[in-house]
Each structure stands twice: as C-alpha cells, then as structure tokens.
Design goal:
8 helices, binds zinc ion
C-alpha cells in the first residue's frame, strides 16, 4: 500500500476508536496515528525517511558528544540537571530510544522487523515508558493496521521475525486498484467520522 493509504486507514481506525473530544486530542490522535502508520516503512531502502534518519542520528550523536565534552571541561553536571526535570528527562530518553530503534529498523530488510509482531510490541513498549495509555493505544492500532494491510500485498511480510517465513494473501499490488479504492474509501469515511465528532462535541 502507498503511504497515503496507510495514513488514511490508520486515521480512520484511531479516530473511530479514540473519539477525541478536544482540538488538541484530535491533533494528537491524527499525529500519532500518522506516525504509527508510516513508521514500519522506514525499512524501505529508497525512502526519504531513511536519509532523514541518517541525518537525525548524526545530529543526535553530535549533541551527545558535545554534551559530554561541555560537561567534562566546564564541570556543570548536565546529568544531574536533566534528571531534576524528571518528566522531561523521561520524554527525552523515551524519544531518543524510539528514534534509535527506528534508525536500526531502517537498516533491516524491507517488510521484516518493523513489519513483525516483535517490532510492533517493541516500538509500543518504548512509547509506553513515558507516554499515556491513549497515545500508546493509537500508536499500536496504527502500526498494526500497516502490518495487516501489507499482508494483502503480493510480496508479503515476515510477521514472525526473526523467523524468515513470509506471510502474504497475494491480493493486491502496493499501488494497484485495491490500494486506490481503499484510500478513497477510508478518506471519505474519515471525513464523515470528523463531521460526527464535531457535531457531538
Ligand atoms: Zn510496509
């Protein structure tokens, strides 16, 4: 399936299940479900996210090295100061681990680790370290929807990674007619759900 189809399907699922009642929670639902719906494809070798992660990782490593150097020469005890902001420290740690795992995922072969039950649970568990149940649920649903949609693809996925067995229902191509129908249908239904949510709140 194409990126836009994964996003549309995940948004439809998340909005229907979570039913956000405020604008911030609506934006968070759409943001997290979009992230969960496209993250599994970081393993695409031609993907722009692959290049983005390379840059992100370089920046992250540079910041860490600079922090260690500044900490050493100016003796400002960065670790203690960060830990005093307990909540922020947890979020930073959680996001850093998530980015690192995404980077490692981008180095695995296409439709393997990030498209497996193992990957789904690892990424969700990392987020559960510092984010609330709603956010983890939205992420879990969206990542899972990506995996399920890709099973219908001709090439299939290694759902039980590290086992190499490829599961595929061989029903559609990633940019074929079913993909287009699914995108249009889920987009229309998402708009309907959004209208219902606006009326009810
Ligand atoms: Zn995929």
């Amino acid at each position: 399936m194409e990126k836009k189809t994964h996003i549309a399907c995940a948004n439809l699922l998340s909005l229907s299940l979570i039913r956000p009642t405020t604008i911030p929670s609506l934006l968070i639902t759409i943001g997290v479900s979009s992230l969960g719906s496209i993250l599994p494809d970081v393993d695409k070798k031609d993907s722009t996210s692959d290049k983005l992660f390379d840059r992100l990782m370089t920046s992250l490593i540079t910041i860490i090295i600079m922090g260690i150097i500044i900490n050493h020469f100016f003796n400002i005890n960065i670790y203690k100061q960060i830990k005093e902001y307990n909540n922020i420290y947890n979020h930073i740690l959680c996001i850093s681990i998530f980015i690192t795992m995404s980077y490692l995922g981008s180095k695995t072969s296409h439709r393997s680790f990030t498209h497996s039950i193992l990957g789904l649970f690892i990424y969700s568990a990392i987020l559960s370290y510092s984010f609330n149940k709603n956010i983890v649920t939205i992420y879990f649903i969206s990542h899972l929807s990506h995996i399920i949609l890709d099973i219908f693809n001709m090439k299939g996925i290694t759902l039980f990674y590290p086992f190499k067995y490829r599961l595929s229902f061989k029903l559609c191509e990633s940019n074929g007619t079913i993909n287009k129908i699914l995108f249009i249908l889920s987009s229309i239904l998402t708009i309907i759900v959004l209208i219902i949510l606006c009326i009810n709140n």
